[in-house]
Fold this sequence. Notes:
The chain has 2 domains: about 1-110 and about 230-305, FAD/NAD(P)-binding domain (3-Layer(bba) Sandwich), CATH 3.50.50; about 115-225, FAD/NAD(P)-binding domain (3-Layer(bba) Sandwich). About 30% of the residues lie in helices and about 30% in strands. The protein is built from 7 helices and 17 strands. It has helices at about 15-25, 55-70, 130-135, 155-160, 180-185, 235-240, 275-305; strands spanning about 1-10, 30-35, 75, 80-85, 90-95, 100-105, 110-115, 130, 145, 165-170, 190-195, 195-200, 205-210, 215-220, 220-225, 225-230, 260-265. The longest helix has about 35 residues, at about 275-305.
Amino acid sequence: MNRYDAVVIGGGAAGLSAALVLSRARRHVLVVDAGAPRNAPATHMHGFLSRDGTPPGELLAEGRREVKDYGGDVVDGQVASARRTGAGFEIELSDGVTVRARRVLVATGLRDELPDVEGLRERWARDVLHCPYCHGYEVRGQAFGVLGWSQEAVRYAQIVRQWSDDVVLFAPPASLTEDEREQLAARAVGVVEGHVARVVVEDDTLRGVALTDGRIVGRDVVFVPPRFAPDNSLFLTLGCDIDATGWVVTDATGRTTVPGVWAAGNVRNPRAQVITAAGEGSAAAVAVNADLVDEDVHDAVRAHRDEH
Length: 308
């Protein structure tokens, strides 16, 4: 059975960053990656210093290479089961291989939940977007639509307004307060009340938004206020505390309530962009290594006493 100092579950920016730091700390590290990154539909990522505009897949491929160059192992697959043992953790992979780890770092990310609007998922990360900081500059000045399906939609529309003078909020009937209407009008954000049925696509290009009453409002881009669902199944399996909204409970370094288990990236922080997730992975790795050092010291002192 293979034994590792740390097994990192998830090979995105957070997981690979953590594995890189741990490998450089001369730790024996395994990364298990399911190969389904959240930003796979995006052609480029933005806001990552020195890597702005890089295709997401290119960043991950380079990250894998760097981890391997420092002696880390990277495998494609999924975790079938994980359990705590007296000496750490036992993790079974989907191909039947079982590995043991002194520490576990989970970086499995999250799922984007979208409203039930025809065509929305198919245009995701193309001209249906959720993060203006990731994509707003590339579509600046175009005609934006914002789907008002969440309580944060008005605030979100005001933020999106930074990238275009032509913004329309599609709001369910009677959902806006007078204060919200005034705020939107003050910054020339249009309001279309009604229920959205589908996005209109012609020649593989988004052309507008169709409402259930037959109206079609021309738009070039649709922004969707995000709803995030954490991939928390491993935390539940390992017995980590989960808060009332489904997110794992951690300290500032990503340490969970189960000794030896850490979390990093979107699995604990839904608003982490790629650069933020990478930073969280690095910080968690430093904490994991420090925890391993504490254990190494304890074991060394005990061995030293036994010898003397």
